[in-house]
Amino acid sequence: MRRFAAFFDQREPATPLALYRILVGMSVISAIGSVVWAGLVPVIWHEIADGGMRKLVQGNPVIDALGGPTPQVVWGLVWASLLGGLAMVLGVGGRFSVLVTALAFRAVTSLNNHTGGSYDLLIANALFLCFLAPSTATLSLDCKLRTGAWTDDTPRPSWVRWLIVYQIVLVYWTTGLQKVSSHWVPGGDFSALYYILQQPSWHRFDMRWVSSFFLFTQIGTAVSWFWEVFAPLWGLSAYYAATAEREGKLRAWFNRMHVREVYLVLGVIFHLVIHALMNVGPFSMISLAFYPAFYGHDELTAAWSRLRSKG
């Protein structure tokens, strides 16, 4: 327990948390902004009497406190979400901006359970973790106003970063465990990805041509299933990388084989392909927002320095 407490009591500059904050804010803007851009706010988030498609879900305490889901309240929450997301991207307002964004976003996206998706809940969870984190300590307007510089290397508690890692690993792992049909699991035909790409409710355009590449969809199905089911190994690899100075053959093997990097690269590829071929809202963006948390400040700044030197 002492070792456990000591590990989570470590401090580091909040660069990973700042990148996480920026990407989460962008995800909020994407999720709400796409509805506004399509002109669907009155359709999906207004009552039937106000032009909505169906009776709205009741009981959200924020909406109840504001007087109910009137068009004025709904639009107020929509703009609060958008402005809050922008404040998060810019890094202004600290935890207050995150709290306002979280309350407004969760309130408006809970109005109609026939729209949206699991990404709404993931964004809500991400906002909660942002509220816990000192995410505007660096790479933010708050930092600029406080220190006169855009960055601040003052060490901050790093335990929230590990909660972020835990959250996304849990998402992938439980998602993989739920894929139990013969189209997904070993011993089946690995045809799940092919059939998904044939469904108009998922694909972005006509995907009948994919039948010529059925083998590649099978490979993609198999790799994604194993990648998700064994996602806890990604969390373990991040821990082993953070404690590389300790002994242990398994730790040494994980670090030597760059398991953490392999998982990250596969994840980026998966989400870019999903975003390009499937209409799944901001799912890819909010999922990728968690990725910077797998690396500490020193690793991120070293990688940035290498990129700048090559440029």
Q: Mind explaining what this structure looks like?
A:
This protein has 311 residues and is an all-alpha fold. The protein folds into two domains: 14-145, no CATH class; 159-303, no CATH class. It contains 16 helices and two strands. A two-stranded antiparallel ribbon has the order 1-2. Helix 7 packs antiparallel against helix 9 (159-177), helix 9 crosses helix 11 and helix 12 (232-242) packs across helix 14. The radius of gyration is 21 Å and the shape is globular.
The residue ranges in which pLDDT falls below 50 over 5 or more consecutive positions are: none
Content-based structural category: mainly alpha
Strand order, biggest sheet? 1-2
Number of helices: 16
- Summed up, the domain count is 2
Tell me about the biggest sheet? Answer: 2 strands, antiparallel
Radius of gyration: 21 Å
Order of helices and strands: HEHHHHHHHEHHHHHHHH
In whole angstroms, the N-to-C terminal distance is 45 Å
